[in-house]
Amino acid sequence: MGIKGLTASTTLASTSGAGLKVLVIHTRWNLSIVDTLTAATVAKLIELGVASSDITIKQVPGAYELPFAAQALLKTGAYDAAIAIGVLIKGDTMHFEYIADASTQGLMRVGLDAKLPVIFGILTCLSEEQALLRAGLGGPDGKSGHNHGADWGVAAVEMALLNKL
Ligand code: RBF
């Protein structure tokens, strides 16, 4: 086993997501990779006990829209946590840097303002290959790498439980 990556919590009494209401917002940019990440997130939430009827999935165009959507939907009071999922792939212009910075800062602000966990599920990749690997779709077999979507499901449940302590 390597050094990198997420290990299980040793301080939470329970890691059961039963009863938690989780909002998943994903982009439609780079959708094939985003869909794979979202599927792993939802599968992990269900594995952790979140009822599928308590998982709400919403779409936005791109990563830049994620903070606004998280804010608009969290203010309904209907959710214990939000997971914002997107894939930014660097192009030839400065768009990547500006969108990455805006969406990162925006999501942090929305979570702190709402006093609810907002999980950062945006890959910021220098190439398509990097993005594929981080969605578990890399390599010639299309199956190498680690799908980070599962980790985002863990983070959402953990942070929602921590917020209720
Ligand atoms: N949105 C993403 O989620 N991922 C991207 O890689 C991405 N690249 C973009 C590149 C350019 C040149 C532009 C103009 C937009 C890009 N967007 C991307 C869309 C952005 O997040 C947003 O949806 C639009 O700028 C509309 O506000």
Report on the structure:
The chain is of the alpha/beta class. The protein has one domain: Lumazine/riboflavin synthase (Rossmann fold, 3-Layer(aba) Sandwich). The chain is built from five helices and four strands, in the order E-H-E-H-E-H-E-H-H. A four-stranded parallel β-sheet has the order 2-1-3-4, with helices on both faces. The longest helix has 20 residues. The mean pLDDT is about 95. It binds riboflavin (RBF). The site of riboflavin has 16 residues, from strand 3 and helix 3.
Topology summary:
Elements lengths: L21 E6 L3 H17 L7 E6 L5 H9 L6 E9 L5 H20 L3 E8 L2 H7 L14 H15 L2
Parallel strand pairs: 1-2, 1-3, 3-4
The site of riboflavin has 16 residues, from strand 3 and helix 3.
Give the CA-based shape. Answer: globular
CATH class: Alpha Beta
| Architecture (CATH level 2) name | 3-Layer(aba) Sandwich
Oligomer: single chain
The CATH topology, please? Rossmann fold
Extended strand count: 4
Spans of at least 5 consecutive residues whose pLDDT stays below 50 are: none
Terminal residue distance: 32 Å
**Helix and strand element order:** EHEHEHEHH
Arithmetic mean of pLDDT: 96
Number of domains: 1
Portion in strands? 15-25%
Bound molecules: riboflavin
Provide the CATH superfamily. Answer: Lumazine/riboflavin synthase
